[in-house]
Amino acid sequence: MKRTRRISAMLLSFAMIFSAAACSSDKENTAPEITGVGDQVVQAGSEFDALKGVAASDAEDGDITGKIVIDATPSLTFKNGKTVPETAGDYELTYSVTDADGAQTQAYATLTVTKQTGEDVVYRKFDFNTEHTIEDRGWKANVAEGVSASGQLKQGAYVFDITSPGGGDGDIQLVKSGVALKAADYKVKIWVKSTKNTYAHLIARDENAEEWATFNGAFNLAIGQEITPLELNFSANDGDSAEIMLNLGKITPNPENPSDTTPEDFTVTIDKIEIYEISGAETKNLVFTNDFTQGEGLTVSAGDGAAADAVFEDGVAKARIDSYPSEGGVWSIKADIGLFGVSVEAGQKYYYSFKVNAANAQSGECLVESASLADGNRVHFNGFSVNAGEETEINGIFTAEQAVADPVIRLQIGNPSDGVSANSIVIDDVVFGKVEGDLETVKTMDTFMAYGSGSVNETNPDYPWSTFNGTDEDNERGVGTIWTQGGGLFYRIDQGGTTDWLNKLVCGYTKNPLTLESDSYYTVEITAKADKPVACGFFLNPLGGWDPRLSERMELTTQEQTFRFTTTDTFIMDMDFEMLFQFGSEDTAKLPDVTIEILDVTIYRRSVY
């Protein structure tokens, strides 16, 4: 009887063990995890430790770093995770690890092997200590006797420091005389700001008139603390001559409200003055229109982790953005407005317009280019910006420098506005056509920078610095100026653009390139700070196209920082480059102004052997 009980107990014990084992086998195994894998750069002939900073772990097995297997394409031989690559190039690395139950995880990275080089030597060091001639472009400051004010060129602008505005508007003036005119319409735009709200008169005086007379005047123009253009329009005949006057003295728009008048103790800053000469006439001939009632004409694509598509409803097209790019791909969402049956002819002038209404504020690029070749066959580049819930008309005029067989109006979208994770952009009333006639607009832009287009340094190879701001080419936003002071190069952004190319500091102006020699690697070292935190993209780009050899991000703060960026490929011949510091963004556009100070830029060269 006892023996029977013992056999029964043993059978029960075996049953319990079998049951536990069965339950254990039913439990789902967790795949292992690999961390610390990332792209690396190493010089040919140097040891590379592929496992440095890399680890593998498993929920059931714990630390299994020792089980990591590394493969490379092209092939490399690893011993204890280390290898010595001898041939320059890119190697695709695959990290694999398998846990005790057979579950496998892989991670990937690129190893860039550079050629063997010598030591870094200084190739180019920029000197910002040199005093540069600042041109007044024919503009003169006039201050009446006894009036406590002064006007002078400083910090890349024409600056009026006004203690007291005098007794009349003409007591303080910025004047340009002898402006030759022809039979045309004229527009004058003066970009100005003030430390206190004030007023100005903008007048075009007829210098040929026997008595004091004007072509036209714009009066009681408000100047605020954010930069804005003051505008004057007038017409003239051949042989006329004008004196353009900006009067900043005492102005009281409404005598019944004497407290609303020009203040005391303030500063007026003028960044640039633009004069447009408009002659001839033109007509617009419609070629294509689409109101999307047929449910076609918009194609949306997304990459870099973004998700978006095209929707047609209620006779309009909608670019529906479910998510923005998670990383990289600044312009990863493309909304193509089809131009069915249209071909663009080289040398022909075109116009377009369409209406946009976005659920959330959005900015981006508006292009006319080939649907298939993209920027390889582009004829128009512009930016756009729309506010949340507001209908905006986007339009442009351009002359095609090349033919395009399959044109589209392409909206490139990437960065969302703050706090936005999705969007809906409605597009309607698309119009595209040819512009015929002899209308011509000639724009003269007077800036007061020691550097930049039209300055004495435009073709001086010792000082290849310039700036581009969006409004220079009549885009919606982007105003700024540059100057040197106390051993530093300053770039003050008085109005930020919503996209990066609307505020650019450039080294290597088109007529004055930055030349880098072949068979070398280059390191650019930049020491900089800003009076407010601001970010910018840094690019080293060959002239003639967009193929950056450096593409980095700089987060500038009020504290001085040094950034170092190194190229990873060499050039087979000497090449002309531009160094670009691109600041425009939604965040930059919200700043009243920001001043960037670059204290040092040094380029180092490492020759290949």
Q: Could you characterize what this model shows?
A:
The chain has about 600 residues and is mainly beta. The protein has 2 helices and 43 strands. The strands form 9 sheets. Strands 10, 34, 35, 38, 41 and 43 form a 6-stranded antiparallel beta sheet that branches. Strands 12, 13, 15, 18, 20 and 32 form a 6-stranded antiparallel beta sheet that branches. Strands 21, 23, 24, 26, 29 and 31 form a 6-stranded antiparallel beta sheet that branches. A hairpin with a 7-residue loop joins strand 39 (about 535-540) and strand 40. The longest helix is centred in the first third of the chain and has 25 residues, at about 1-25. It is globular. Residues about 1-25 have low confidence and may be disordered.
Topology:
Layout: H1 2-26, E1 33-35, E2 40-43, E3 48-49, E4 55-58, E5 62-63, E6 69-73, E7 82-83, E8 89-98, E9 104-114, E10 121-125, E11 139-143, E12 149-154, E13 157-162, E14 172-180, E15 184-194, E16 198-206, E17 214-223, E18 228-236, E19 241-247, E20 266-279, E21 282-290, E22 298-302, E23 307-313, E24 316-323, E25 333-338, E26 349-358, E27 362-370, E28 374-386, E29 391-399, E30 407-413, E31 423-437, E32 440-447, E33 465-469, E34 479-485, E35 488-495, E36 503-507, E37 514-516, E38 520-530, E39 534-542, E40 550-556, E41 561-566, E42 575-582, H2 586-590, E43 594-607
Parallel strand pairs: 2-9
Antiparallel strand pairs: 1-4, 3-7, 4-5, 6-8, 8-9, 10-43, 11-14, 12-13, 13-20, 14-19, 15-18, 15-20, 16-17, 16-19, 20-32, 21-31, 22-25, 23-24, 24-31, 25-30, 26-29, 26-31, 27-28, 27-30, 33-36, 34-35, 35-43, 36-42, 37-42, 38-41, 38-43, 39-40, 39-42
